[in-house]
Amino acid sequence: MDITQTLINAQSPDPNVRNPAEAFLRLAEEDQxxxxxLHLSFExxxxxxxxxxRQLAGLYLKNTITAKDPQVRDHKRQRWLTTVDANTKGQxxxxxxxxLQSGNPRAGATAAQVVGTIGAVELPLGQxxxxxxALLHNVVHTGxxxxxxxxxxxxxxxxxxxxxxxxxxxxxxxxxTDMILTAxxxxxxxxxxxxxxxxxxxxxxxxxxxxxxxxxxxxERNMIMQVxxxxxxCEDARVKKKAFECIAVVASLYYDKLxxxxxxxxxxxxxxxxxxxxxxxxxxxxxxxxxxxxxxDIIREIQEYQEYGALETRAPGDQGPRQCFYYVQNAxxxxxxxxxxxxxxxxxxxxxxxWNMAMAGGTCLSLVALTVxxxxxxxVVQFVVSNISDANWRLREAATMAFGSILxxxxxxxxQQMVSGALPxxxxxxQDAHPMVKDTSAWTLGxxxxxxxxxxxxxxxxxxxxxxxxxxxxxxxxxSSKACFAVYNLASDRVAxxxxxxxxxxxxxxxxxxxxxxxxxxxxxxxxxxxxNLRAAAYEAVNMLVTSAAPDCNxxxxxxxxxxxxxxxxxxxQMSDLTLExxxxxxxxxxxxxxxLMTCTQKLDQNIAPxxxxxxxxxxxxxxxxxxxxxxxxAFMAVGALADKLEGGFLKYMPHFQEYLYAGLRxxxxxxxxxxAVGVVGxxxxxxxxxxxxxxxxxxxxxxxxxxxxxxxxxxxPHILACFGDIALQIGGEFERFLHVTMTILGQAAMTxxxxxxxxxxxxxxxxxxxxxxxxxxxxxxxxxxxxxKQGLLVQPAYLQPLVALLxxxxxxxHSDEGVIKRTIGLVGDLGSKLGDKxxxxxxxxxxxxxxxxKDMDEYGEETxxxxxxxxxxxxxxxxR
Length: 881
Known about the structure:
The protein contains 43 helices and no strands.
């Protein structure tokens, strides 16, 4: 079969044409990989072939060697290294280098992708000798700018792929790095054409992460910074944008090296921002965003070090926190006026997903405030005061946005006067003639209540709520959504704790509760509810109001809110013949309704009982109708909340609900749904206690199946392990029939935590989570069996040895967090209390590893200290005996 035609056929919309071509290619990839790749490389390099066919051949070749999914990518790369013989590899690489020199730009660009893919696989392994020599020659010595562009693109792809695949501690050999940088620097020279400079600047951006040794050398660093700064002056907008992007990357990776260049970078970026709304200006702003991010992190490190890492406790080799050069603080007088000026460059008819200079300026201003905190106020107050009531809507909106943008930084004490002065204007802004002023006023009020609610006197809440009620009904979905955000924060538990209540049965929300809930539930039904996330924002605000409501609002929740939610959920099942988009919107609505029903259930406690039958009927209908993940998550959580409140009364629903519970537990493809379903098992355990036992066999069977399945996400398995403890704790001695298989699984899981890469933060976090779950399981089993005096079943070497090994490993692991230590100490206490002398020799309660658990007790919370005191008492009694 002709390879060109086969590739074309594989793109055909006609399945009769497409399917045979795909089958042929799939079979060739499985049975004749080397020959297929060779044919594809010849096709790509053949100058007599059509451009489209050459591109298809190159892309198919690339996609047989790499993929986006990490596991698939590793498999394909390993297949290239081990399955394709060296001679065929040599021919393929020769052909793609030939294609890289094509006079056809698209063929060359496609070849660049293939060169980048294979180069990134082989260079770290010391393979493909001569590749970088060839690429360097193409850039420096060829007279063809098309070839230069393709070659620099190839270098960019190599650098990009190397960033993805190289692990901690891995480095590109210095010789290769030097050659890559030499080619890039030559390509970015000011006398090169714009297309060449763009390809070189892109490659440089991708290479900055692994040329650290070059950046450590002052001469080489100066050269790199010089070519970047020169590129910012290029007349071609694409090159200019990419050069400023390089500057932002340098700020992120090499903050500590910026000092000699900061004056130049300051001038370049601020000049670019002043010039207007070019794409380069966004990247110039990003440079300052990056500096803010870096300095926030460094300042936090310094504060933590001063609090927890005093000089006298500094470990050998500890250099202390990084130095902060306070670039952002030193630039305030010039930077902040420029950013506030950007706020006046609004685009009136932008949508929520668009990005413009005003929005970029507001984001940067917010980051600046977060970095310098109170110090930003002198540079912003005058702009706000001068413009917040100006006749020009642009200035009113910009002043309001400036105020809202800085609220993340300064303290409430420093902002007290400003908030008090701005509040009347924000309330007035909710009824402004211009929708953008209303929108920003509502958002800013929301930020005030989110961060600085203490600055708003209780006596002003009436006028604020009145204005918000008006804004909730605004015809613009965006304004209404921001008003929902403001109500959400007004009702948060943080605010509730600070505003005094007249009596235990009421609070500050009670006078406004009926009006706000009624308005929000009406907003949730608006036909434009899918715009600006309005419907979700309305239900989230209702949830927060219900959560924070005082007891005097419970009657309204029970008699009006819950029946209305149930009616709306019922109505969702009466809709038919919907488009896919309409179905997605419907499932989203069901998810929101289930979530709000859960919140009401938690609030009403046992008073939810009159609605339980109808609620379970509708929740089961959600499970029955479709498998939409978000709706099922919320429905499961609503079931869990109902079980928690009904306790033993939930038993009557189990015959109807159990099949959907089991389906959720089996649904490991949607890990979030599976995790929530596991959580429901925990809720049912606590609600039904021993009455759950008849339903446990299929639950445990599914748990074991998931734990043994390599395709189940590692995020799911800790939840399952912990749930064994929930079940055992509640069904007591009846857990005996699951004991052997459970203890075996726990022992195996414990062994997987013994060796891990502590340099990877995500892995440390995962191991701690996994250990917490294992410890929860052991604790539940010990306590559950003890309730029926069956704890002696645990006294077996096969059970105790892996348990003791886990406890010892935790005590010696400096990365064990407080949650793990707390559970370990508690479990040691339970073992001593419940089993005592029966396990004393196996566990060694007096051994050093037990004492080692207490070493950092002063740093832990009160709950951990109480558990530690309990365990000490238990062990002391054992020693006395």
